[in-house]
Write a structure and sequence with these properties.
The complex is a heterodimer of chains A (261) and B (238). Chain A is an alpha+beta fold. Chain A contains eight helices and twelve strands. Chain B has one domain (37-233): Glutamine Phosphoribosylpyrophosphate, subunit 1, domain 1, CATH 3.60.20. In chain B, a hairpin with a 4-residue loop joins strand 1 (44-49) and strand 2. Classes of the chains: A alpha+beta (261), B alpha+beta (238). Chain A: Component of the proteasome complex.
């Protein structure tokens, strides 16, 4: 297709801003990710629903990716970006480890990812919530959160600023498809002791505030997670029967089976 | 004819984009809609000048709209021995800008073999923000520092880099109305470091009590010719 055709495409195609939020990677907010730090481990849990709009495709999808021997990345948001973006990060981190002989620390990995996301922020659309949990020998367990907005008007403002940037920056450049795809998420990063993403997070954050304390043992952590799951299953209108739980500690990454299942 | 085709393409695409921009806004006024983005994360920063000292304080909330995610967020950063900058607005841009400021400050240091003084730093910040005039960073910085003769320097700007330099106090964030009132009443010129800290802490804590998007503790940095002191404030966690 030539650039000429793109310019004369109907307005619906060229103004994604007019779509409702549910059409933007329809999963925004539907993925429930929970993570927190224990005594010498970091634990992450995610629901296992793969759904779009009203339809659930699968209820055994693993949303927690093993980035390297001592890092876990839980991802939520747009389904395609959740595969592509962490994959890109993982490959680059593997390359770094191969070139330099030492893998990135959790702090370095989080900052690397935030840098990539903020670079892409005003260039392309990508909707991925991330919880990075890792264990380093010198620092111990840590949890980093990269946030995604659930609200339209923020992404609108970013989109508008991008539109304006394009408006004034077109100097003989051909209007390519790449310029039309707008960012829809923000790349702010924080190191936290406990965090949760998505709509499920609204229910779980207060539970974590009350019951989390420093130096939780693994059993206590699993009990806390179970109470979080119970709350989500009781009060959240999306049915989430299954959850994945993974732990990262000095020995590496492992999956923890749920006691009740 | 190649040249004129490019021109007509540019014209068509520009008008299309302008139309899309207007069409994209449901409420009809683009300026009003954009203001939501500055309140997205929530922040409050005050800087005050005293006698040969300057102090800058911020809240510690990290939130997304009405939900608070964390209470340990850093919003004031030290760039060199004599310069501090506090950032409000969108958290991601705060973090990106902090890195950009640090980069430029360090490059200046390497090239010039001396630290950037606060006035030069503030001008640099202003021009950095204006570089992105049509796709700006959604951040309103406050620069506080001590000039070579130890007189305090305060500068604040909007997200496009329009700078204003004052000699008493500078506020930025969501609850500026509340903060202005407090600072205006409680500020006296030529305060020493302790009095300055006390005044600034009270202004911040009382001011953010009126704002649900800022608060959850505070941190005050006091910069004197001897060095930097940092004090954390216990405030209402709500």
């Amino acid at each position: 297709r030539s650039w000429f055709t793109l310019v004369s495409a109907p307005l619906n195609e060229t103004a994604p801003a007019t779509r409702r939020r549910s059409e933007w990677g329809a999963m925004a907010g539907m993925d429930c990710l929970i993570g927190f730090v224990g005594k010498d481990f970091a634990i992450v849990a995610a629901d296992m629903n793969a759904a779009r709009s009203i339809m659930v495709y699968s209820q055994d999808e693993d949303k927690i990716l093993k980035l390297d021997s001592h890092k876990l990345l839980a991802v939520g948001g747009d389904a395609a970006d959740c595969i592509q973006e962490p994959d890109f990060f993982k490959k680059n981190m593997d390359l770094y480890a191969m070139r330099n002989g030492v893998p990135l620390s959790t702090h370095a990995a989080a900052n690397y990812m935030r840098g990539e996301k903020s670079y892409n922020l005003r260039r392309r659309m990508s909707q991925v919530d991330m919880l990075l949990a890792g264990y380093d020998k010198d620092v111990g367990p840590s949890l980093y959160v990269m946030m995604l907005p659930l609200h339209e008007d923020v992404s609108f403002s970013l989109r508008l600023s991008l539109l304006r940037a394009i408006y004034f920056a077109l100097n003989g450049t051909i209007l390519s498809p790449g310029l039309r795809y707008f960012i829809d998420y923000l790349a702010s990063m924080q190191k936290l002791d406990k965090a949760s993403h998505g709509y499920g997070g609204f229910f779980v954050n207060s539970l974590l505030d009350t019951h989390w304390k420093p130096d939780l043992t693994e059993a206590e952590a699993l009990t806390l997670l179970e109470s979080c799951f119970k709350e989500i299953q009781k009060r959240f209108m999306i049915s989430m029967p299954n959850f994945t739980i993974k732990i990262v500690d000095a020995n590496g990454v492992r999956t923890v089976p749920r006691a009740s299942s | 004819s190649q040249h004129s085709r490019a021109d007509s393409l540019r014209l068509a695409s520009l008008s299309l984009l302008a139309f899309a921009a207007e069409a994209a806004c449901p409420c009809g006024t683009t300026a009003a809609k954009m203001s939501g983005i500055m309140e997205y994360n929530g922040a409050a920063v005050i800087a005050m000048a005293g006698k040969d000292c300057v102090a800058i304080a911020s809240d510690k909330r990290y939130g997304i709209r009405n939900q608070t995610m964390g209470c340990q967020m850093k919003k004031v950063f030290q760039m060199n021995d004599k310069v501090l900058v506090g950032l409000t607005g969108l958290a991601t841009d705060q973090q990106t800008l902090e890195q950009k400021f640090r980069f430029r400050s360090n490059m200046y240091r390497l090239r010039e073999e001396r630290d950037m003084n606060p006035k030069a730093f503030a001008n640099m910040v202003s021009s950095l923000l204006y570089e992105s005039r049509f796709g700006p960073y959604f951040c309103e910085p406050v620069v506080a520092g001590l000039l070579d003769d130890n007189t305090p320097f305060l500068s604040g700007m909007d997200l496009l880099g329009a700078q204003v330099i004052t000699d008493d106090f500078m506020v930025a964030g969501d609850c500026t109305e509340a903060l202005y009132g407090l600072c205006e009443t409680l500020y006296t010129p030529q305060m020493g470091p302790d009095a300055l800290f006390e005044t600034l802490a009270q202004c911040l804590l009382s001011g953010v009590d009126r704002d649900c998007l800022a608060g959850w503790g505070g941190v005050v940095h006091i910069l004197t010719p001897e060095g930097l002191t940092t004090k954390h404030l216990k405030g209402r966690m709500d």
